[in-house]
TrEMBL record, chain A:
Organism taxonomic ancestry: Bacteria, Pseudomonadati, Pseudomonadota, Alphaproteobacteria, Rhodobacterales
Entry keyword Membrane: yes
One BP annotation, GO: transmembrane transport
PANTHER family named in the record: ABC TRANSPORTER PERMEASE PROTEIN (PTHR43163:SF9), DIPEPTIDE TRANSPORT SYSTEM PERMEASE PROTEIN DPPB-RELATED (PTHR43163)
ABC transmembrane type-1 domain span: 99-314
Name of this chain's protein: ABC transporter permease
GO cellular component annotations of the record: plasma membrane
UniProtKB/TrEMBL annotation, chain B:
Gene Ontology cellular-component annotations: plasma membrane
Membrane-spanning parts: 12-34, 76-102, 123-147, 195-219, 240-261
Entry superkingdom: Bacteria
Family: Belongs to the binding-protein-dependent transport system permease family.
Cited InterPro entries: BP-dependent_transpt_permease, MetI-like, MetI-like_sf, OppC_N
Source taxonomy: Bacteria, Pseudomonadati, Pseudomonadota, Alphaproteobacteria, Rhodobacterales
Native source species: Pseudooceanicola atlanticus
Keyword Kinase: no
Membrane topology of this protein: Multi-pass membrane protein
Domain ABC transmembrane type-1 residue range list: 74-262
The name this protein goes by in its record: ABC transporter permease
Swiss-Prot/TrEMBL GO biological process terms: peptide transport; protein transport; transmembrane transport
Keyword NADP found: no
Automatic annotation (TrEMBL), chain C:
InterPro entries: AAA+_ATPase, ABC_Ni/Peptide_Import, ABC_transporter-like_ATP-bd, ABC_transporter-like_CS, Oligopep_ABC_C, P-loop_NTPase
Domain of life: Bacteria
Subcellular location field: Cell inner membrane
NCBIfam families named in the record: PRK10419.1, PRK11308.1
Keyword ATP-binding: yes
The keyword Nucleotide-binding appears for this protein: yes
SMART domains in alphabetical order: AAA (SM00382)
Residue ranges of domain ABC transporter in the record: 4-254, 274-522
Organism: Pseudooceanicola atlanticus
Membrane topology: Peripheral membrane protein
Keywords for this protein: ATP-binding, Cell membrane, Membrane, Nucleotide-binding, Transport
A Pfam family per the record: ABC_tran
Record's protein name: Microcin ABC transporter ATP-binding protein
Length: 325, 279, 535
């Protein structure tokens, strides 16, 4: 009952947030140099006079601002994200077409970074001040300072160009005619480098948080209680320290989701991964603002969904949330 | 002075400081070192590094000196990093301070606003802002500031809330001091340490953001930057690795230096916590 | 036959600590069925021996020499695995902070059953039954529900019972209790002490009971050890030590304890310093779209008067609303309704700016000596900020600050120092000086001596008593400690769940309490014995 209420309240909040982003988009379009119709049609003569006239009518540019806003938001609520004149397709279709690839990439990167980050953080905290700790913390510091796209380029250079171990380009081998399991394996091979390089930075983030959190929880009274019971140190670490130490990591993971989706723009650009990030990059060069704003809105929606999921996970781990009445 | 003493006993922080000073010097001396600027074509394109005198890092796709680009790039990175951080602090500190100090609906409103900005994928927002406002140094800096302030607001709010609960703040109220006086003179000075630490880490993040925008072609077209160098060389990575390699190293070193300094400051400002973390 | 026998134990502190040994040349035995109280102030090293016996010494602290014989072995030198086998099985321990001593993410039943798991006893299914039996034994209500509850759903006293259940799980021969009742309210404390006494009776285990409170000693101890700076300064039977202490330190400690003696009320003028009329404050929590709203009446229609030159003690347990009342008087908490009249003005009715101008009339002395002074400001600034804001010329305010530091016994030169250069007791003196600097008509002391060791507490109480006669102060003295209240106050007001249940002259309230709650409260004070009124 409490959970249902929480989900409902989160959904309402999510809807408000998306609405606010739509309004933000609207004002951004108006802030851009030139009138919104030309902006949305894209420059460089992509649109002819007729199109621009149609757009003006559609946006009601002769109407007062609030009417324009209402129309714009109305369109978005009905999932009409506009039309990409560059690509000759509705923006929504373009995005839905590319969304699966981005989901695969970001979710893989998320799990890799979270699992590896937590594992390394636990390992480092168990050997605080020793060589292993210094090595892990140092490496994390380095990853933390490395631009995503540069890590991606260097990975391509080493593992794809020099060693030839893994493909450094695309989503699957074009024209291979693979299907079923073979195709999945092929996609997996293509996925490894992008997912790893996208995950590196976040792995460093989770590792640092896990380590700090483990050390902090280890000082708490209930750990002393556990020791006083005569429990094995390994069990104390797993059952008492780790579970409590994971709480801030889960919170952080929720907050970092937005960064992950943003980072996908860079990774997909480097690896020519056919997701919405790559779509955004292509639209930048083409000044296809309608598509850019659409991708922006959809990625925000992804982050919101992700936040709701982490919120639910948090509720599952921490009994204190939701019981409070 | 003990703060400085604690700071310099931290070898990592000292190394970071040395690197940062070197980068600052290079940035300041750029016009002296390369009076012709970073755009001048000095030799034939694709010269391999360490093969030509005077061009230790080789030339790029148009025959420009890679090292000259690096030297000028340092200016942009540092400038954007610093200015956008200051701007983010100017937004985040007052907002967080008011939210934490006044609580209730002020807090509710300010935090909803902050949460909204935190939900938006911040790199995507930066892209949209720069793309729509046209890429210039100003728009890039503003965009980075706009996506960077929410964590500041949250941190300052939490700190102010915790300090405001201290009894000396109650005592100040009972002394008849005004709210603003209490907030500015009694509360905020006690929240400075974590803000300083966060600011140094934010400069690092801002440099990463700037380079990422430039990499995507959203840099100021008139200014040479590290991200632009890498972005321009992306398509020739198979034949001319050095064009992307060296600017990347420059970014990693600078960002690493700032992170090391931030951690050093953190340890020096919170000696108690630092000790706990190590022992 | 002694269960444990400690001989010549010394425990070394890490380098750079304020002394070399936490505990030095410490020897004592505890027999089966015996309760030994180890008494001392903070920093006396009283908990260190227990930690050593448990093998739970903090990092950097180590046994330098000595033995602790238990079951025919020196348990300080056995392997870590052997120590672990003893812990929770033959030696068990309970701690001071029930709020943090339980894992917040595990059900109570699982945490109790974990003791069996650690020592490989019983099948998993049986463990639950055993846990249930233990929960019954420590008299937790509704055992079937408690076993599935999480710690946050239990009160402090219930958590401490759960801790005791864990400790008893494998019928230990030695139970170590490290200040187990310090964090609890006095009535809860009395129940827990009774539970420990009962269990000792039933199980015949040895108990090492660590405490700073001689009242608790009087209730529970068979034998007593008094520690100071890591050394045992006195030992003996409980009655011997309490009634006829030999060592100076013990004598001073016992003298410092507010005794059961109840002071006489001083005659006071009729002019009121403070009048509270029908004050109300309700805290509302929740009330969101999907959350149930909960109202807590922290102040429920309270009226009382404090005369000029009078000390009124406001007592009650945590959650009684006594602190909220104090804060509502100075409007650090905004009351919902009612009047707070000080010197003819109703503080509760003033606008924000009027209030600021009138605030000097009532000043507070706070509980936490470490949070009540701004760490970045010198004492001078702490003492002059208020007077200057009130319009006192700078020179005058500064001169007054020096004078006040003399008055509270710290010396005029101390004004140029920072708070961190002072001890806890000294900081409380600065806090008192800061309140006096505003020339208030009323001082509210909110648990002003609760955070201090008993000997320091006595000094600060002496200072308050002295100031009160010198300056004819009116004080609202808020405390949970009835013994302290009995010492200082002229009249006592008792609060329970936001209501004022009893108010009267100190001797009446203590010797002839009318309300059943007051009676229960007084009966629960360890070592109470409010037999006599002082002359």
């Amino acid at each position: 009952m409490a959970i249902a209420g929480a989900i409902l309240s989160r959904l309402i909040k999510a809807a408000i947030t998306l609405l606010a982003i739509a309004i933000l988009n609207f004002f951004l379009v108006h802030a851009a140099p030139g009138d919104p119709a030309t902006v949305l049609a894209g420059e460089a003569g992509a649109a002819d006079e007729q199109m621009i006239a149609d757009l003006r009518a559609r946006f009601g540019l002769d109407q007062p601002l609030y009417v324009q806003l209402a129309r714009y938001v109305g369109n978005i609520v009905t999932l009409d994200l506009g039309y990409s004149f560059r690509q000759g397709q509705p923006v929504l279709d373009l995005i839905l077409d590319r969304l699966p690839a981005t989901l695969i990439l970001t979710l893989s990167a998320f799990w890799i970074s979270l699992l590896a980050g937590v594992a390394l953080g636990v390992a480092a905290s168990a050997r605080v001040g020793k060589f292993t700790d210094t090595l892990i913390t140092g490496t994390a510091l380095l990853f933390y300072a490395t631009p995503l796209y540069w890590a991606a380029l260097m990975a391509v250079l080493v593992f794809s160009v020099q060693l030839g171990w893994l493909p450094g380009f695309g989503y699957e081998t074009v024209g291979s005619g693979y299907s079923g399991f073979e195709r999945a394996l092929d996609i997996l091979k293509h996925l490894i480098l992008p997912a790893l390089t996208l995950g590196l930075f976040f792995m460093a983030v989770y590792m640092r948080m896990t380590r700090a959190s483990m050390l902090e929880v280890a000082q708490q009274d209930f750990v002393k209680t556990a020791r006083a019971k005569g429990l094995m140190p390994s069990l104390i670490r797993r059952r008492h320290i780790l579970r409590n130490a994971l709480l801030p990591v889960v919170t952080l993971a929720g907050l970092q989701a937005g960064q992950l989706v943003g980072g996908a723009v860079l990774t997909e650009t480097v690896f020519a991964w056919p997701g919405i990030g790559r779509l955004m990059f292509e639209s930048l060069a083409a000044r296809d603002y309608n598509t850019i704003l659409g991708v922006f809105l959809v990625s925000a929606a992804m982050v919101i969904v992700f936040n709701i999921l982490t919120d639910l996970v948090y509720r599952l781990i921490d009994p204190r949330i939701g019981h409070k009445a | 002075m003990t703060l400085w003493k604690r700071f310099i006993t931290n070898r990592g922080a000292l190394l970071g400081l040395a690197i940062l000073i070197a980068v600052i010097l290079v940035a300041l001396l750029a016009p002296v070192l390369y009076p012709r600027g970073p755009w001048a074509m000095v030799q034939r394109p694709f010269l391999v590094p360490f093969t030509t005198d005077g061009l230790p890092l080789g030339t790029d796709t148009l025959g420009r000196d890679v090292l000259a680009g690096l030297v000028y790039g340092a200016r942009v990175s540092l400038l954007v990093g610093l200015v956008s951080t200051v701007m983010a602090l100017l937004i985040g500190v007052p907002l967080g301070a008011l939210a934490g100090f006044y609580g209730k609906w002020v807090d509710e409103g300010a935090m909803r606003f902050t949460e909204f900005f935190q939900t938006i994928p911040n790199f995507a927002l930066a892209i949209v802002l720069v793309a729509i406002l046209e890429p210039t140094l100003t728009s890039i800096t503003i965009a980075i500031a706009i996506v960077s302030w929410p964590p500041v607001a949250r941190l300052v709010r939490a700190e102010v809330m915790s300090v405001t609960k201290r009894e000396y703040v109650d005592a100040a109220r009972l002394a008849g001091l005004s709210n603003m006086h209490i907030l500015i003179r009694q509360v905020l000075p006690n929240t400075v340490s974590p803000i300083i630490v966060m600011a140094s880490l934010m400069v690092a993040t801002a440099i990463l953001l700037e380079s990422s925008l430039s990499f995507l072609g959203l840099g100021d077209p008139n200014i040479m930057s590290w991200g632009f160098q890498i972005g321009a060389a992306r398509t020739v990575i198979r034949s001319a690795w050095w064009l992307s390699f060296f600017p990347g190293v420059a970014i990693v070193l600078t960002v690493l230096a700032l992170n090391l300094i931030g951690e050093g400051l953190n340890d020096a400002l919170n000696p108690h916590l630092a000790r706990k973390g190590r022992s | 036959m002694s269960v444990i026998s400690i001989s010549d134990l010394s425990i070394a502190l890490p380098r750079g600590a304020d002394r070399e040994f936490a505990v030095q040349d410490c020897s004592y035995d505890i027999a089966a069925g015996e309760i030994l109280c180890v008494v001392g102030e903070s920093g006396s090293g009283k908990s260190m021996t227990a930690n050593a016996v448990m093998g739970l010494l903090p990092e950097g602290v180590s046994v330098a020499k000595g033995k602790a014989e238990f079951g025919g072995k020196d348990i300080l030198t056995v392997s870590e695995a052997e120590q672990r086998a003893l812990r929770g099985d033959r030696i068990a321990m309970i701690f001071q902070e029930p709020m943090t001593a339980l894992n917040p993410l595990m059900r109570i039943g699982d945490q109790i059953a974990e003791v069996f798991e650690a020592h490989n006893r019983h099948r998993p299914a049986e463990r639950r039954e055993k846990a249930l039996a233990l929960i019954r034994e420590v008299q937790l209500p509704d055992p079937e529900k408690i076993i599935r509850a999480y710690p946050f759903q239990l009160s402090g006293g219930q958590r401490q019972r759960a801790m005791i259940a864990m400790a008893l799980a494998l019928e230990p021969e030695l139970l170590i209790a490290d200040e187990p009742t310090t964090a609890l309210d006095v009535t809860t404390q009395a129940q827990i002490l009774k539970l420990i006494l009962d269990l000792r009776e039933k199980r015949g285990m040895a108990v090492m009971f660590i405490t700073h409170d001689f009242g608790v000693v009087a209730e529970i101890a068979d034998r007593v050890i008094v520690m100071r700076y890591g050394e045992i300064v006195e030992r003996g039977n409980a009655t011997e030590v309490l009634e006829n202490p030999q060592h100076d330190y013990t004598k001073r400690l016992l003298a410092a304890i507010p005794s059961g003696l109840v002071g006489q009320s001083t005659e006071v003028a009729k002019a009121p310093a403070l009048e509270i009329r029908n004050l109300e404050k309700t805290y509302k929590t929740g009330g969101g779209l999907f959350r149930e709203r909960r109202d807590v009446r922290a102040i429920d229609n309270v009226s009382l008067t404090i005369s000029r030159g009078e000390v009124l003690g406001l007592v009650g347990e945590s959650g009684s609303g006594k602190s909220t009342l104090g804060r509502a008087v100075v409007r650090l908490v905004a009351p919902d309704a009612g009047e707070v009249i000080v010197g003819g003005t109703d503080l509760a009715a003033l606008s924000d700016s009027e209030l600021r101008a009138a605030r000097h009339k009532v000043q507070m002395v706070f509980q936490d000596p470490y949070a009540s002074l701004n760490p970045r400001h010198r004492v001078m600034r702490a003492l002059t900020d208020g007077p200057i804001a009130k319009g006192v010329p700078k020179d005058k305010a500064r001169a007054r600050a020096r004078e006040l530091m003399e008055t509270v016994g710290l010396g005029a030169d101390a004004v140029d120092r920072f708070p961190h250069e002072f001890s806890g007791g000294q900081r409380q003196r600065i806090g008192i000086a800061r309140a006096l600097a505003m020339d208030p008509e009323l001082i509210i002391a909110d648990e002003a001596v609760s955070a201090l060791d008993v000997s320091i507490q006595a000094q600060v109480l002496d200072l308050l008593r002295d100031l009160r006669t010198r300056f004819d102060l009116s004080i609202l003295f808020i405390t949970h400690d009835l013994r302290v209240a009995a010492q200082l106050c002229d009249r006592i007001a008792v609060m329970q769940k936001g209501k004022l249940v009893e108010i009267g002259p100190v001797s009446e309230v203590f010797l002839n309490p009318q309300h059943s709650y007051t009676q229960a409260l007084l009966a629960a004070v360890p070592g109470g014995g409010w037999g006599q009124a002082a002359e």
